[in-house]
Design a protein that fits this description.
The structure is a homodimer of 144-residue chains.
Chain A lengths: L3 H18 L6 H8 L3 H13 L4 E3 L5 E3 L10 H9 L2 H4 L17 H17 L2 H9 L8
Antiparallel strand pairs in A: 1-2
Helix pairs in contact in A: 1-2, 1-3, 1-4, 1-7, 4-6
Bound molecules: FE2/S2 (inorganic) cluster (FES) (2 copies).
One FE2/S2 (inorganic) cluster binds next to helix 6 of chain A.
Chain A binds a DNA duplex (30 and 30 nucleotides) through helix 3.
DNA sequence: TGAAATAAGGACATGTTAGTCTTTATTTTT
DNA sequence: AAAAATAAAGACTAACATGTCCTTATTTCA
């Protein structure tokens, strides 16, 4: 569904968000540890998120990553997915035809499209704040 | 979503089914052409489908692949997916946690699970016959 | 019986995703 | 000013998915 890079990106962003509501920045090292992801590889994806403006980064001692808390309800999961995996998840033909279209549909199109649309809807309508609240309340988890 | 191998497998199976209702066997070469998939690679996936009992194969001149028409409503897309990709599509955690569970859910679990369930349902409830009818009536397509 | 047509099988090649390592740039602390 | 702590960047490696090629086995047909 999502690439490994994208899974790490979403987990990391949620963790950064949870720390940011406490007014704290989080280092790459801490993120990798708390999200159980490979450090150097996670660094790459965080760079992309930073360039996309989803997270903020600060170099130097006491640096790290953070997110403006006032933005957390405006940031949607779809933005993270778009930054890392692009939008082909919602556009690709389920059976691998060059393009998915109503004019020239594959045999699975009619059944598949609504499900894919549902996926797109939840991803576009779920905010970072939505995902973070469960984590801070202890009802959801980012690693084993 | 599905691997390339699985996409080819589903397309090929639908094409074989369409030919089988006319009582004809189809050669690998013809399948690859009509489904627009790489010959040798498609051969591999057809071997798996054959070993899984989803399609029948016959060697030699006038050989090829076919499907018992009386089975076509009993064969579900899920069987093809299972034979090629396994069932992780319906079981994997969307954010890459080791396992997806209600006891230890990731932040996306509650929203993601129903969509994944819908996908599983359509895949398990759609038969080969369902997908083949649109092809023979000309309303759906297997290649550009 | 020999040739042709087919699928099966396995070794190899290529491409993409995932991941590591090392160096550089920036900031804070001492 | 020097040292320490951090992110950024790029080259490299590993694993896996995708795809090709060649040989073998089986069947039909002339
Ligand atoms: S054409 Fe295949 S999913 Fe739309
Ligand atoms: S635990 Fe992540 S989708 Fe179920």
């Amino acid at each position: 569904m999502f690439s490994k890079a994208c899974e790490y990106a979403i987990r990391a962003t949620i963790f950064i968000a949870a720390r940011s509501v406490e007014g704290k920045r989080t280092s790459l090292k801490e993120i990798s540890r708390e999200v159980d992801s490979p450090v150097a590889f996670t660094a790459k994806t965080l760079q992309k998120l930073s360039k996309s403006g989803i997270i903020l980064s600060t170099k130097g001692a006491h640096g790290g990553f953070n997110i403006d808390p006032t933005q957390m309800s405006a940031i949607k999961v779809s933005q993270i997915v778009m930054a890392i995996d692009g939008d082909m998840v919602y556009k690709r033909c389920s059976l691998g035809l060059d393009s998915c279209s109503e004019d020239h549909p594959c045999p699975f199109h009619a059944r598949f499209k609504p499900v894919r649309q549902d996926l797109q809807n939840i991803v576009e309508n779920t905010s970072l704040l939505d995902l973070t609240s469960g984590l801070v309340s202890g009802s959801t988890f980012l690693k084993v």
